[in-house]
Amino acid sequence: MASPGLQLQLSDPELKLLQTLVYQECGMHFDSRRAHFLQDRLQRRIKECQVDSFYSYYRLLISPQGKEELTKLLENLTVNETSFFRNKAQLELFHKHVLDDLLRRKQEKRDFSLRLWSAGCSTGQEPYTMAMLVADALSYHCLRNPSGHELPVPKPLIAPPWKVEILASDINYSVLRAGQEGIYAEHHMSSVDYNYRLRHFDKVGDRYAVKKALKELVHFDFHNLKTEYLPQHNDVIFCRNVMMYFDEAEQKRLIEKFFRCLNPTGYLFVGHAESLLGLTDKFNMIYRDTGTAYQKLEVTS
Ligand SMILES: C[S@@+](CC[C@H](N)C(=O)[O-])C[C@H]1O[C@@H](n2cnc3c(N)ncnc32)[C@H](O)[C@@H]1O
Q1: Residues lining ligand 1, CB < 6 A?
Q2: Sign of the C-alpha dihedral, residues 199, 200, 202, 208?
Q3: Sheet of 283-288: strands edge to edge?
Q4: What pLDDT was estimated at residue 1?
Q5: Distances in Å between the alpha carbon of 158 and those of 138, 145, 274?
Q6: Which atom of ligand 1 is nearest to the CA of 123?
Q7: CA distance linking residue 248 with residue 87, whole number of Å
Q8: Atom of ligand 1 nearest to the CA of 238
Q9: Deepest in the core among 55, 148, 170, 230, taking most CB within 10 A?
């Protein structure tokens, strides 16, 4: 049993074993610059599990009984930093250009469904931001294109016949639970203007709870982006600040999977520090000011 003060210093081969396991399980790549972080998180788990050596812990991780511990280790290794309305220029492009284009084309085809996916959603700020922007864009679209449907009272957030589904997925169960709960402290709300706070949040004590109507648009679920079978038929995918933890080979594989998960001419948003440049020729980059996105190219035979 590990003594409480025991500090395990991993040897290079031990570190390599663990790096390989983590990479195979979830695609996260820990190069020498991030080895210290890996070492630190591993110490915590080894202490918690009360095992006496790295090898006992490693054997546990790869055993059938170790599935739960592997999930916990991966949770400890993810970086979950996020915020509402993160990267405003990109969201402006999403709101004013992408949604406008999608709604207009869908209306022409009389297809009144929108399916969006926040892949690597962390504690939910990203998918709820998407939901607020979609609700706005759709109200504006419906004003200009009245459907003739009589609206129920009180007016629903999404006017029929439109249907909006936002899938929010992550590999970390604890962030998924927080997103599902949808309750945020004041310091999380600094980027949410008062107009949005009033419309989409209830004040509960000193915290803000996402209102039921907005919450109903977002469905939280576990998906590991490393796996082959990922949610299909999306009009838009947000996968921001996730790929930066993968190496180039894994990034290429993920982009290929996103290509297959998108509807024709669908859109992919990646983080500010991420790019598809040099990784694929199956997307066209679009931009407004400093906001960028990628549109799936039609395959011509
Ligand atoms: C830095 S957060 C980004 C949150 C949000 N997309 C944003 O930009 O604000 C990265 C998230 O990706 C998740 N993640 C990392 N590897 C993943 C994988 N293989 N499958 C699914 N989610 C993953 C992490 O758990 C974490 O919550």
Answers
A1: 26-28, 78-82, 86, 120-122, 126, 170-172, 175, 224-226, 240-242, 271
A2: negative
A3: 218-222, 163-170, 113-119, 234-239, 262-270, 291-296, 283-288
A4: 46
A5: 7, 14, 32
A6: 27
A7: 23
A8: 6
A9: 170
- Confidence bin at 33 (pLDDT 50/70/90): confident
Residue nearest (by alpha carbon) to ligand 1 atom 14: 120
Q: How far is the CA of 233 from the centre of ligand 1 (A)?
A: 21
For residue 13, which amino acid is it?
P
In the block, tokens 């931009």 appear at: 287
Query: Of 291, 295, 298, which is closest to residue 276 (Cα–Cα)?
Result: 295
Cα 117-149-197 angle, rounded to 5 deg: 50
Residue nearest to atom 24 of ligand 1 (CA): 78
Given a cut of 80, whether residue 282 has pLDDT beyond it is yes
CA distances (Å), origin 199, targets 194, 208, 210, 221, 243: 8, 12, 10, 25, 33
- Predicted TM-score of the model (pTM): 0.95
Backbone angles phi, psi at 195, to 5 degrees: -60, -50
Out of 70, 80, 122, give the residue to mutate to test ligand 1, the one with the largest number of ligand atoms within 8 Å of its CB. Answer: 122
Q: Which atom of ligand 1 is nearest to the CA of 122?
A: 27
Angle 144-129-156 (CA atoms, 0-180°, nearest 5)? 50
